[in-house]
UniProtKB/TrEMBL annotation:
This is L,D-transpeptidase. It holds the Pfam family YkuD. GO terms for molecular function: acyltransferase activity. Residues 1-21 form the signal peptide. Keywords: Acyltransferase, Cell shape, Cell wall biogenesis/degradation, Peptidoglycan synthesis, Signal, Transferase. Belongs to the YkuD family. It comes from Rhizobium alvei. The keyword Acyltransferase applies. Residues 332-465 form the L,D-TPase catalytic domain.
Amino acid sequence: MKPAVLALPLLAILSMTSVSAQEWRLDDPRDMVLVTPDGELLDYIPDAADVTIKVNRRGDRVLIDHYGNVVATEMTARRYARGLRRGDTFAASPRYEPRQNEDFASSGGNTDYFPEAPAEGDNSGEITGTVPGIEDRSTFEDQPLPGDGIQNDNLDGDTAALENPAETPDTPALPNDPVIKLDGKKSRYEITALQTFLDREGASPGVIDGKMGSNVTKAIIAYEKITGETLDPNNTEDIMTRLGFNGGLPITEYTITSADAAGPYIASVPEDYSHKAALPAMSFTSVTEALAERFHMDETYLKELNPGADFTMPGTVIKVVNPGATRKGTVARIIADKARKQVFAYDEAGALIAAYPASIGSADTPSPSGIVSVERIAFDPNYTYNPKINFQQGNNTKVLTIPPGPNGPVGTIWIALSKPTYGIHGTPEPSRIGKTQSHGCIRLTNWDATELAKMVKPGVTVEFID
């Protein structure tokens, strides 16, 4: 069966933000696809405002986020399929190589450098590191963002629901993994119910957006490992019954308060680190961003559920996801599965407590292998940029302290590991968790990272497996 993904050139892909996946045909050499650095088809459509387009030495257009991460490389479907037939991990795109300098080489080439934990008694929660900007990457030339308004007649209907997501390249089956299939076209409400149920049961689907994708598939498999039960994602009646026993309906009403409307909020998240450091906090940029994170939602989905709502007006009643209570327990062991892009938390008896989708390293900046341990946990950490340790970001040549906040480079949590420079942390971009690469650390949504942080303590082992 041909994967149910969308056949558009990059110009159209970035202008049609409502599209949920890509479709390609081998018999049409014009069909283009977006391929992640580990060789999978990208399972979401980036917003043009969220990426910069560069051209690599091979002439391919490459999508790069504002933190310097490669999101995807554009190539023909025929070329991508040829690589699949050869069994290549990533046969079609040259690596995104940083310009190395003496300081970078002395740090071991690690783009997530974090020094030793502060001395005991230092409660500042400060961490040090840099996320390299795209200015530091020398193998690409700038290309203007597209936006010619190309239309596509195949965008009608509910593009969020996939008939058979298990057969699309965005959810590659791993050995011994069961195949998860959807019978027919599920509504966004039905998929929201499934995501909400999984979230309440400790099998996080990442952001709840009413869309079936790889993170949901992984969460279903994790739920079965947590409970020992089989979950049929096609049995909506059963899922609704189960929701009745663990928190109620997936969508509930919420009244916006004066505190919600007041913030404080920042106008935007600047790219330049000196501008970040000048802010009082790396706060949310809007009421919708803050509420989306509180209710584990995709911000766009929150707005779609409430058309015409004035989120800045106290007293406004809106519809939100009801994610339920925070997971409780004591975690004794963590496994970071690089292949599945998932983190598993186990108790002392070896029972799985929770599972989270994650971005774990990349081919260029891989995560470590083997066993390390948790050294300390920092909530709402500062972030110190030091150009002598890693890359120089923009024209910044001095050490800068970026204040805490959910839009900081590591989100709201930093769980330091015993291997210097590595940790488990949050993110300012939850919708990309499990779908893009990190710079070697383990990146979770802020709410999943917070939940995990409250269940761990120093000494807990973290095992990276390939």
